[in-house]
Protein 1
Amino acid sequence: MAKNRIIVSTTNNLEGYRIIEYIDIVSTNVVNGTGIFSDWKASLTDIFGGRSGTYQRKLRKIYEDAIDELIDEATSKGANAIVGLKADYGEISGKDTQMFMISAVGTAVRVEKL
């Protein structure tokens, strides 16, 4: 997220800023396979209990990728902030494959500091 640093918020307003222009909705879908070794390591966690650091890292990575894509889209449209960010996780599985998916959407805006 550091390459194009803009404000990203789940709220519809930004304290200390005024929205001067609503530009467009920005959205993305990121899908990432878990991989056979990740699945194997996660199955051990399932058997013995505890948290799956492997899957947590993968989910964190696709979340960061989604935010980066939203930032790229918003800045290409002239925005300096994204408000109303919503993210939804899902799983795609079948035929011996498992993939994680995140869909993210927000509103690209131009803001000015008060």
Note: The mean pLDDT is 82.
Protein 2
Amino acid sequence: MGGGLALAELADLFRAPEPDPLAGRFATRSGMDLLCEQADPRPSDGLRIELELEQKDDHPATMDRLRVAVAGYCAERIARIEVERAAIRRRGLKELLAGLIFLGLCLAAAALLSASWSGPDWLRTFFSEGLVIVGWIALWHPVDMLFFERLPLLREQRVLQRIQTADIIVLPMSSSGRS
């Protein structure tokens, strides 16, 4: 991660700070949210997080508590993401089953329509192919859920795993580091 994350106080790492435009503070997202956006989910060298604080606390107990707090925060969010990914998978499989049944009914209706239609060919083709298209569209959402909806959650989970084991350094805020 390049540069540091500027915070007015250490608690702003876990909660959204109160914006104070007159004091030059405009941030409305927690430091962890900002870290999750900035960190690369791909594992590489160890992640180093530099926190720039207006009031630096060098006390070793504070640093130990900070590391434990970050690890615990990440573990809780990772567990929540696991539950959410499993719920999406369950819903996706249920909807996939319903979609496959609906597609089968549409295909059967299209075949029956093609075999028994006595009107113009173009109208028979219009309705039978329309039924096939509607059947395939019914599969769109379950397939999207199973293959794509979980990807952002997987990315966030990987980022949190990297942050959980990151080397955290607390520095005094530089004059250009105000957020």
Note: The two ends are 17 Å apart (CA to CA).
Protein 3
Amino acid sequence: MLNHFIHDAKHIYLALGATDFRKQIHSLVALVQLSFGKDPFEETCVFLFCNKRKDSIKVLRFDGNGFILTQKKLLEEMKFRWPKEEGELKQISSTQVQWLLQGLEITQKYAHTMMKKEGKNHCF
């Protein structure tokens, strides 16, 4: 279901470290602006936050005339593999979001990287 909120985002940011989940839209918007120096009103950006227990995430996105804030809470003993760094934003891909939601780390040792080919002659 969270895929709906991130499917066409050009920039997906993780707020590293734990975020106080008493914060709602106004406080998270202020955090994005003041602490991270990003524009939360950019419609192509999505911001993800994780609580201290790493069992819940919040997703914040502007949709043109207001903010959407949604939350996913895991059940019993499950945890998100949230990065350990603190106090900054980390840009990730939609594939990395899928890994995160599946309980995997956002950096996979053996994941294939995407290759871009130019319009020159290529032969296999």
Note: The chain has a mean pLDDT of 89.
Protein 4
Amino acid sequence: MDRYTEDILHALENDGRLSNVELAARIGLSPSACLRRVQELERSGLIKGYGAVLDRSQLGAAVTVFVMVGLSGHLKKDARAFETAMAQAPQVRECHNITGAVEYLLRVEVETLQAYKHFHSDILGVLPQVGSITSHISLGSSKDMRG
């Protein structure tokens, strides 16, 4: 990975809507060379896609909770069942399998604390795979690279 590739990735990560001409001018390549590089980064899978970053609070998701979940069993079927349940829960924006004292870290976005209570007790709390739940309510984010 050379400087141009790093510059392309940095520029697109900060503004995925840059036109190829703007991107080329910003990093110091011709538009055709820049386009070839971007296309190769897309083909290789390093650039997975482009999308809009939404202000979730304007959509009603005013409360962000980071939830640490320990599973009651450590079989592959337990992890699969839990991940399937989390994939179906619209409140769960991210589900990470982690190392340490628990198996999963979730980023949950809900409208209110009451809505989180519902998620905690009626969605997580009824899963037989869940052995422990620890909730951390976000008070704000000083850095968020998602946008």
Note: The helical segments are 3-14, 20-27, 31-44, 76-88, 113-124.
